[in-house]
Amino acid sequence: MTGNAPLIVEVSRGDMIESRHRVAAAALDAEGASLLEAGDITALVYPRSAIKPLQALVLVESGAADAFGLGNAEIALACASHSGEERHVELVRAWLARLGLSDSDLECGVHSVAGCATPTTAHNNCSGKHAGFLTVARHLGFPTAGYIGAEHPVQRLVMAKVAETMGAKLAGAPRGIDGCGIPVFGVKLAELARGMARFSASDGPSARIRTAMAAAPSMVAGTGRFTTRVIEATAGDVLVKEGAEGVYCGMVPGRGIGIAVKAEDGAGRAASAAIGHVLQRLGALDTTQSAQLSDAISPTLRNHAGREVGRISVR
What we know:
By secondary structure, this protein is α+β, with helices and mostly antiparallel strands. Helix content is about 40%, strand content about 20%.
């Protein structure tokens, strides 16, 4: 599984290739059969925010989502790396109020947001996920303070569910802390793709989360974002989720396919181009959808004066 060449994302300017990114990619079905391999898919990666849909499983399975009357918008936001737009922040705050909590109970830190002079933790792109963790804590009677800690019962439940879905063994796996403060663990890229495949093919809580993401794509990312655009263009037939450091995951629920890509150098521009390329190779995007997304899959580079100067492409 390690002998395939990686995808190469090339950044051209004028007459030459100016930069190249190496990207590993794996696509599997729910039974674990390989549909596409590029690069070393047995290498360990931190999934980062790309596994938020899997992390949201505990929110639904525990009964917490129903107990607090969460709809598609909130569940989609629990899967989100949102842009901190007004609609995202307002929904997070309304959700927290339902729990008897506020911005100050979020332990994700503060992100700067364009156009906002005084951002709070509600503007953090992980605030929906953290609201989900707090909902589980409230429902199951766990302390809300310190909910991001690796030994907190919420995080233990979440890590166990994610590992189970991927079929990954975490004993001895590399550990770290994500940008929003929660634990992260290293898994094989193939395991990450397998988890997405299983999630895409499962009924029950997985289906509810997929429905929410398809129904509220603007909550999963934001205006003009590639994640939101893919979900919108395919009417939810394809679901994608980005993570930091060049990780991107995808699902094709109607075919039970899971996808995971990782840019070796952590470049987000390479990861989004690569997952778009993989979706095209798998036939998950039709001609119309590919055309709608072409400016993101193979974007034109322009200088500050708006002149076309290059392009990003995948081979």
